[in-house]
Amino acid sequence: xxxxxxxxxxxxEVRAIHDLPLFELIDRARAVHLxxxxxxxxxxxxxxxxxxxxxxxxCAYCPQSAHYKTPVDREQLLGVDEVLAAAKRAREVGAxxxxxxxxxxxxxxxxxxxQILEMVSKVKAEGLETxxxxxxxxxxxxxxxxAAGLDAYNHNLDSSPDFYRSIITTRTFDQRLExxxxxxxxxxxxxxxxxxxxxEGVEDRCAMLVELAKLDPHPESxxxxxxxxxxxxxxxxxxxxxxxxxVRMIATARIMMPRSRVRLSAGRAELSREAQLLCxxxxxxxxxxxxxxxxxxxxxxDADTExxxxxxxxxxxx
Length: 318
Ligand code: SAM
Ligand code: DTB
Ligand code: SF4
Hints:
Blueprint: H1 11-18, H2 22-36, E1 41-51, H3 80-92, E2 97-102, H4 111-125, E3 129-133, H5 139-148, E4 152-154, H6 161-167, H7 173-185, E5 189-191, E6 194-196, H8 202-214, E7 221-226, H9 243-256, E8 261-264, H10 273-281, E9 284-288, H11 301-311, E10 314-315
Parallel strand pairs: 1-2, 1-9, 1-10, 2-3, 3-4, 4-5, 6-7, 7-8, 8-9
This protein binds S-adenosylmethionine, 6-(5-methyl-2-OXO-imidazolidin-4-yl)-hexanoic acid (DTB) and iron/sulfur cluster (SF4).
């Protein structure tokens, strides 16, 4: 309880919150939200894939896995200048954080990692918060990222420990927790969440939230993704996520992790404006902002500016 918040939720207790009558759930989540966060602010984070495709992992949802034939081609690590140009564009359209992703299983020491460190320090110098997601990380690598100016590290638990095994076989749930431990120990803020719509049950969704809330302190950011169904991946034919399932997940996460930023993440392009706003009313106060996520389309900045204007939301300061 180092943060004075609860880390010992039982799955049944979470299920009871999750399954409340919808308005009651939203009322509770909104009350928690208003107690801990400004009521009309949205954090705008831009994603950039700095190393795309050809990943050795077999994550069943992922278009970048080398195990599946998808529309995503393998690309080299971007140069520092290309990344800086993208960072400036992101800042100009209003983003406060740049999250750079690499389709790696893990970070390997060597020239590519040195280049990532340079990207981090230069993006930071542009006045943006920096986040990277590079796969597994050792304690030493985490410390080097911190020294380069890294603010946040994204590494998702993805699903419940049980369901995880049916989605990824090439690394374990415990290895994910180990990476998060290294990130926390280095003094980098933790960004970790998961995906719904992969065929998991509500019990799995609740079990994932239990695991996220066990982290002490709670993760600073909790991305909740709806599966983006990409042709060629094993999950391409999953039914679409019911937007109200997303609202329930976000509201439950908000109640369990009151101080965390809950991010309405992938899958937003398929949501109506009203569904997005309901997610935000229920506790989401961060979005991925930009034309693309890592490899798939996102609702662009113009639509987001319009959405924020219509609801009277403002961009959260860095
Ligand atoms: N390779 C690194 C890793 O897996 O840790 C970093 C990049 S990986 C693409 C980051 C996260 O994106 C995954 O953990 C997953 O939660 C999310 N993601 C990937 N493909 C997705 C999809 N099709 N729909 C929703 N979320 C997805
Ligand atoms: C997260 O939770 N979602 C982002 C980010 N963290 C790295 C990635 C979403 C990827 C969606 C599929 C794609 O565009 O490749
Ligand atoms: Fe690789 Fe990350 Fe995609 Fe898994 S989610 S296949 S580790 S890029």
